[in-house]
Design a protein that fits this description.
By secondary structure, the protein is of the alpha+beta class. It is 18% helix and 48% strand.
């Protein structure tokens, strides 16, 4: 798969998996909705609760990975990117990702202190498609 096809593939997925590292250095995987914003394969933005365990884990250890996959009847595609996750609480970034329906999760609106943004910056990755694996170089 070339980078364009990988980007196109990620853009079609409705679910993503993010991985953090806990205090005992074990990887912890969670399903999330697709990123709210993406800049190529380099930057991915997710919204979440500031009070969540994953936020504390990322503040303690920013090493992270994200994973996207699709399983068809015959074909399986998986893309893993590794890098670092930042926890952003500045109002400009929160405004950028905010959607009207988010008040269901964040009662105080876009300024809710329990609303934050996770910014994942990838450094490299791997993919699996058509019984082949390959490396992804991030520029």
């Amino acid at each position: 798969m070339d980078l364009k096809n990988i980007e196109k593939f990620i853009g079609k997925q409705k679910v993503s998996f993010i991985c953090s590292v806990d205090s005992e250095n074990y990887p912890i995987v969670r399903a999330m909705l697709k990123p709210r914003k993406r800049v190529g394969l380099k930057e991915f933005y997710f919204s979440t609760n500031t009070s969540s365990v994953k936020v504390k884990q990322y503040l303690d250890n920013p090493k992270a990975s994200i994973y996207f996959y699709h399983k068809g009847l015959i074909k399986y595609i998986g893309v893993m990117l590794k890098g670092k996750m930042e926890v952003l609480t500045d109002q400009e970034t929160k405004n950028m990702l905010w959607k009207t329906g988010d008040t269901m999760f964040y009662k105080k609106g876009v300024t809710d202190p329990d609303y934050c943004v996770l910014k994942f910056t990838s450094t490299s990755g791997k993919y699996y498609c058509d019984l082949k694996t390959g490396n992804i170089t991030i520029k």
